[in-house]
Amino acid sequence: MLAGLRAGLGAGCAAHRLRGQRLAHSRTTEKLQQEYDAVVIGAGNKGPGAGCDTCSPQAAYLQQAGLRTAVLEKRHVLGGAAVTEEIVPGFKFSRASYLLSLLRPQIYAELELQRHGLRVLLRDPYSFTPLLEDRSPPRSLLMGHDMAQTQQQIAQFSQKDAQAYPKYEAFMGCLVSAINPLLDVPPVDTAALGQGSLLQRLRALWPLLQAGLALGRQLPHFYKVLTAPISKILDHWFESEPLKATLATDAVIGAMSSPHTPGGGYVLLHHVMGELEGQRGAWGYVAGGMGALSQAIARAAAAHGAHIFTEQAVCHVLLGTDGQAQGVVMQDGTEVRSKVVLSNASPQLTFLELTPQEQLPEDFVRQIQQLDTRSPVTKINVAVDRLPSFLAAPNTHDSQPLPHHCCSIHLNCEGTHLLHQAYTEAACGQPSSRPMIEMCIPSALDPGLAPPGCHVVSLFTQYTPYELAGGQPWDEKARNAYADTVFDCIEAYAPGFKASIIGRDILTPPDLERIFGLPGGNIFHGGMSLDQLYFTRPVPSYSTYQTPVPGLYLCGSGAHPGGGVMGAAGRNAAQVVLRDFRRLRWQR
């Protein structure tokens, strides 16, 4: 669901030297104090950049509840991976994350994000899959919220699939409705299951029992979706390859896995359980780019009195003689004391770099080191001087955006075999020769992102390995060679695309790790496989946001319920911190 001046962006540019520019980032005018109740570490703070899903909703919740809270972000711009950056002069890119759907509805309401400037641009239709085929014009699959129109589109390929699609949507909706409440509460505390009365143990299990009751007879089917390859699930429902490949992209996006890999179903569910303005499964653009969301959350926190700082690098967590977290030490040696510390960084950065190793159990450290953080993603941001014109849906003479330009445009998705082939090449250390490409053109709905007549294009591509075969580096030559492969693919669907390119920003997995603090370049801070979810995210016995260090909490995408621009981990972690605060005060 990511080159510019090498010193500024660390990535190459073939034809243009791109200039990174700082956008407004709602820095507090307050001075950094020596002591707070809570300090929130911006994600990736130990590395050269930062990388979280959004700008610390937990800070707003903590400050709202009366805890004096500071957010310390190393980069010049807030939001981790949810940022807007002007890489090419005049072009504003959602440089990493680029679409909104998963942000929890409670956060919209509780933090009054609309009042703080958030504006969402809904997309309908939302999915466009043009085909390469020996017919003129080639066919395409356009999908939206109008079920009848979507069925007509599917019927081009299969009348049977057109009839099955509403039933598939209803089935997935049932599963999502059942598990959705689990996202908004901490995972069941397994330690509590061995303590207290039977009633207390049942109460601890209640969230899972509720989900099971809601699933009812669908429970075996839910289990199958979670454990089977997504190709098997889709083969059960459909026969047309373009439809199956389009749907399969949501099961493999951001994951180093094939449609034939068992256990990909949860990633699919994860990407269809969002909503926008009451529309389940809807995805949209944030007006002004994804950074505008982080700005709205920052304004909500600041309105309650939170102190938010950029260009403040945390060196390590400060511990007392009793092993309790007592604040943080900044890179310049300044100590900022606090009663609790919340880390929005990945588990690897939090526990392997920011926390003194001697304070952590050896087995815990070993499990953190063994987390699967493989990433197939290379994000390419492109500035173009005109809209792409697809063979399957040519532009009009006035060159105005058409409905499909507002969609997620799926390329190289004629069949699931292409996705598997792309994965197989990357698994052998080679960038895909025909990569899976999700193209988005947010300026089609938000023209202020680019100069008149021009557009910003987001290319979320996979599969690319973190380490290239033979130990070859992801240097400027390798980056640009892969980008050229991607552009050649797009050219086949939309002739003239390559000639329209003004500038490019190429972010391979190592770049995503270095700039945004995403371990291995993984957009979820770690794989979303069944062995790294719920009870076991990030590791067993530490899934409730508390850590082996008293007073230190994990609140980013590496905690339950996982990655994406969701905010749930931060909101849930804030609830746990406030509960612990109340308990501590009661004991005193």
Automatic annotation (TrEMBL):
Its main location: mitochondrion. It is found in: Mitochondrion matrix. Gene3D superfamilies: FAD/NAD(P)-binding domain (3.50.50.60). One of its GO terms (cellular component) is mitochondrial matrix. Keywords: FAD, Flavoprotein. It holds the Pfam family Amino_oxidase. The keyword tRNA processing does not apply. InterPro entries: Amino_oxidase, FAD/NAD-bd_sf. One of its GO terms (molecular function) is oxidoreductase activity. Residues 264-388 form the Amine oxidase domain. It comes from the Eukaryota. Probable oxidoreductase that may play a role as regulator of mitochondrial function. Belongs to the carotenoid/retinoid oxidoreductase family. Interacts with COX5B; this interaction may contribute to localize PYROXD2 to the inner face of the inner mitochondrial membrane. This is Pyridine nucleotide-disulfide oxidoreductase domain-containing protein 2.
